[in-house]
């Protein structure tokens, strides 16, 4: 049995770091290394249809991107994880509230599927699946949030929520006021 101590975790982390560095190309930076371990944001400012009004979020499950349309003809694009097939949805909502380090309570359905899930994970816990920030959508149980599983970004992995890299949701969070329109669609916006 392995005892988890601060020294043991440090040694384990160092071993993982050394192993990961040998797998990265010689030109890799420290930022590349941390992105490799924890998932790094790859947000970018892009041209966007000028017919879409600024100051709204467009979530494209087809592109697997969240677009913050911050100016006419321009958006910040963030990669996301989309819902699994049985949890797919679309529609128009708004940001009804925002939380820093939200706690997470799995639904009864989630606990039936995985009885090992805890009844509650406090905010700020490293295994909290909501990550460091959450934007709540209307009266629904859906959120735009960070993740403790960055390797799922770009995949169909969620039970209906929109997952972002934690550093990306931290970037998005202060930009979005409560009441912001959120359109969730399968329409593609990139070519």
Please give the number of β-strands: 10
By secondary-structure content and strand pairing, the structural class works out as alpha+beta
Helix percentage range: 10-25%
Output the CATH homologous superfamily of the largest domain: L,D-transpeptidase catalytic domain-like
Categorize the overall geometry.
globular
Query: What is the N-to-C succession of helices and strands?
Result: HHEEEEEHEEEEHE
Question: Biggest β-sheet, characterized?
Answer: 8 strands, mixed, barrel
What is the residue-averaged pLDDT? 84
Written overview of the protein:
By secondary structure, the protein is an alpha+beta fold. The protein folds into two domains: 6-38, no CATH class; 44-185, L,D-transpeptidase catalytic domain-like (Beta Barrel). It contains four helices and ten strands; from the N terminus they run H-H-E-E-E-E-E-H-E-E-E-E-H-E. It has helices at residues 6-23, 30-38, 108-113, 166-172, and strands at 44-47, 56-60, 65-71, 74-83, 91-100, 133-137, 143-145, 156-158, 162-164, 181-185. An eight-stranded mixed beta barrel has the order 2-3-4-9-7-6-5-10. The chain is globular, with a radius of gyration of 18 Å. The N and C termini lie far apart (52 Å).
Features:
191 residues; alpha+beta; L,D-transpeptidase catalytic domain-like; 2 domains; 8-stranded mixed barrel; 4 helices; 10 strands; disordered N terminus
